[in-house]
Amino acid sequence: MADPLYELLAPYFDSPASPRPVPSVQDQVTAKYLNRLSTLPLASLTSSEPQSLAQSSHTALLSLQSLSARSNSALVASSEHLSSLRTTLPQLATEAESLRNDIPKLDEQAVAFSEKYSRSAENEVLDRRKKALLMARNVDRLSDILDLPTLLSSAISSSTAQGASNTTNYASALDLHSHIKRLHLLYQDSELVSSIYQQTEEAMQEMTSNLISSLRAQNIKLAAGMRTIGWLRRVAPELDGNSSNREGTLGALFLVCRLATLVSMLSALDPLRDLADQEAAIRLRDDNPTKKGTDAWSIGQQTERYLKRYIEIFREQSFAIVSMYKSIFPSGPDTTASDDLGLKFKSLGLRSVSQPTPTPQQQDPLSPLPSALSTFPLHLVGLLTMTLKQYLPNVQDKSSRESLLTQVLYCAGSLGRLGGDFSLLLADLGQDDSDEEGDGHGEWVEAMKKHRVLAGKLESLASGGSVRGMKGLADGRAKSPNEVK
């Protein structure tokens, strides 16, 4: 029934009264409405149906207006895109054609890249990229390794600034050096590790120089000296292994440094030495024997001050050097007694009858050198005797000369406790050029006698009568000085 009804209503469309186009018969909305009209009574077509259609039209108009308000921007954009679609589609077709033409070239480049960076064959570029990626992943480790020379130099510099009392930084520096040395042994082909190792060796040479310089300190103690020698054994093991002696080359180095300190301390007496030289010049210029008894004491006054201070420094430092050396470099149990005995008799210029006969190895000129301590006291004694022979004749006062000779004997006895007694080598120091008796040793003999008597009294107090002596001294304090002898 829909088709006849459609044919009945179709002529009313597309006419002056209704300019609307004729709806399609296949339209679902049209077919649905025609089916609805066939179900309505005839009276409703003229009464309620026009109102229903007007209401539906108004509702549709309101919906279109609200939709236009909500989707205004979207509609405008859609309109613009629709207007540009005529130019966009040909451009898209042109670019698609260009892309289709460039695909073979892209394929060729991809194949060439794959062949160039293939892992199946050796490739320098790929190796460089691998190394760069490896360095990027291990940049923190590389930074730590590169900072090792700086840390080592900082530890050495801080230890040098804080002095020999600080042992922590030197120990840290030695640990860092051991770590870098281990890295160099593991990665000998690495240029980076080799460069760091070279910088480390330069820093350790600086540390060695600082340690050697610390051995020349005036107020160095035994503990500091032992620590310094221990560090030198770790830093420069070649100094400890080139010699067959137990102390190695470090023993000679220690003696040379302490000798330099002694010479520098004695050189501080140069102002007094200049005055003594002036008195020596006056003594050599003045050959009149009548003036010898008048102003002899005043001429030798400055020389006496110089020699007293010289002998005092020499006594303290020589004993400290030899005793510290023996504490740091102890000799073996089989050579201690013979070395001390040989040192003592050699310093006296005598030959010991109880000294053992030299072995063929000792007679061999190519045999290892003896200990540095065996000749060091002779050098010290040579410095002292040369100074005494040069300046002692300036002192003409008898009491002053006896005081100086006694001081020299105390110095010889102090060094003699370590096996270096040189008192007999100084027998000619008391000889006077104007002595008419011929032997010239009377003053020295008198000084020796007084020294032995005083040494005997001190020894008796220290050995058998120490308790009685202390008690007697305590009782003597309550008596007058004339009653205590």
From TrEMBL:
Coiled-coil positions are: none
Q: What is a single Pfam family found in this protein's UniProt entry?
A: Dor1
Q: Give the matching InterPro entries.
A: COG8 (IPR007255)
Q: What is its main location?
A: Golgi
Any idea what this protein is called? Conserved oligomeric Golgi complex subunit 8
Which keywords does this chain's UniProt record carry? Answer: Golgi apparatus, Membrane, Protein transport, Transport
The organism named in the record is Lepraria neglecta
UniProt cross-references to PANTHER family, sorted A to Z: CONSERVED OLIGOMERIC GOLGI COMPLEX COMPONENT 8 (PTHR21311), CONSERVED OLIGOMERIC GOLGI COMPLEX SUBUNIT 8 (PTHR21311:SF0)
Q: Which intervals carry biased composition (Basic and acidic residues)?
A: 474-485
Q: How does it sit in the membrane?
A: Peripheral membrane protein
Family per record: Belongs to the COG8 family.
